[in-house]
Amino acid sequence: MLKVGTRGSQLALQQTGIVMEELRRKRPGLTLDVHVIKTTGDRMQDVALAQIGGKGVFVKELEEALLERRIDLAVHSMKDVPALLPEGLEIAAMLEREDARDVLISKGNFKLERIPSGARIGTGSLRRGCQLKNIYLDVEIVPIRGNLDTRIKKIERDNLDGIIVAAAGLKRMGWQDRASQFIPPEIMTPAIGQGALGVEVRKGEDVGEIVSVLNHEKTFTEVSAERAFLAVFGAGCQVPLAAYGTIEKDSITVTGLVGSLDGRMLIKDRVRGPVAEAEQMGRILAERILAAGGRQILDEVYRRLS
Fold first, then answer.
1. CATH number assigned to the domain covering 217-306
2. What is the DSSP letter of 44?
3. Given 42, 72, 80, 102, which residue is catalytic?
4. Using one digit for the tens of pLDDT, what is the confidence trace for 108-149?
5. How far is CA 95 from CA 87, 212, 215, 218, 251, in A?
6. What is 102-183's CATH number?
7. Which of 75, 213, 221, 233 could disulfide-link 26, Cβ–Cβ 3.0 to 4.6 Å?
């Protein structure tokens, strides 16, 4: 029997169910047992992610459970996973990526090109807020946290004009009809790993081999390029940062950006190269963006936070 670790939100359980169903299909006879683990990010829903430690707040306790052998594998949204994993752990598989785009859910069903002047848009993501402010300077970004259902309800409860969330979560919950607009990646570059589910295990054990049947090579390569970009920045949720890799035939294109918190400065670039050098492409892109002014943006953001 394998013990599967997951967060306890409705979406996390739905995503873990997807992984388990696929694993049972490919490994008939395998017994799986779900273990719900509450993470720092789940416990502190009234505090901005940047204030409680950024990216790792949704995975830290799951990784501790892995290292302490309380669970055998952990299911993560890859966008929540920091660039550096604890020693002894690895991502053994990523399932085929769901829609990587962001989604606008708006009151009155308006799209971004018809966004009202001074609109109040809710998001817990610095990346989304920065890119939106860069295009629509008078939009008011309202920080929101909580599970997907809670965030949707905040449109009415907090008198918001709309919210921006990940398309993947909306689709996995079967709520895609609530979307007012699927935002093209050219308008809003997705989060690193957005839409991809990863399975983390202890290195060098049979579990890695068992779950490897779940791996979708194209997704793994694209997300690995994005995570290589992230590793150069060494950033979590304290900085508006985005990267998105797409493979066509034997080449990969990686688009990335870093921006200021108010959206006034945004440096965006893209590189293209062979699939075999996907991670190298991510690193090259990060260095280019840092050299083009990204370093100054990082310094300014961290100066404000200190």
1. 3.30.160.40
2. -
3. 80
4. 999 999 999 999 999 989 999 999 999 999 999 999 988 899
5. 23, 10, 5, 10, 21
6. 3.40.190.10
7. 213
